[in-house]
Amino acid sequence: MEMVTLSIDNQRVEIEAGATILEAAKKINVDIPTLCYIEEINEIGACRICVVEVQRAKALQAACVTPISQNMRVWTNTPAVRKARRLTLELILSNHPRECNTCIRSLNCELQKLADRFGIREIRFWGDDLSYTIDESTPSIVRDTNKCILCRRCVAVCDQVQNVRAIAPQERGFKTTIAPAFHLDLADVACVLCGQCTLVCPTAALHERDQTEEVWAALADPKKHVVVQTAPATRVSLGEELGMEIGSIVTGQMVAALRRLGFDKVFDTDFSADLTIVEEGNELLHRIKTGGVLPMITSCSPGWIKFVEHFYPKFLPNLSTCKSPQQMLGALIKTYYAEKIGLDPADIFAVSCMPCTAKKFEAQREEMRNSGYPEIDVVLTTREIGRMLRQAGIDFNKLPTEDYDDPLGISTGAGLIFGATGGVMEAALRTVYELITGEELEEINFTVVRGLEGVREASVQAGDLTVKVAVAHGLGHACKLMEAIKDGTSGYHFIEIMCCPGGCIGGGGQSIPTNREIREKRIAAIYTADELMTIRKSHLNPSVQKLYEDFLEKPLGKKSHELLHTHYTDRGTAPHLKASE
Question: Which of 165, 310, 396, 472 is deepest in the core (most CB within 10 A)?
Answer without folding.
Answer: 472
